[in-house]
Amino acid sequence: MLAMQYKFTLPADYDMAIIKKRIELGGAKMDNFPGLLFKAYLYSSKKEGFTENSYAPFYLWRDPTSMQHFLQSPGFTTLTHDFGWPKIDCWPVLHSPELKEIEQAMYVSINVNNIAPYSDLTSMGTENMLCAWDVTRWQLLKTNFTKNLPTLHGSERNIYRIGYLAKGAV
Question: What are phi and psi of 117, to 5 degrees?
Answer without folding.
Answer: -55, 140
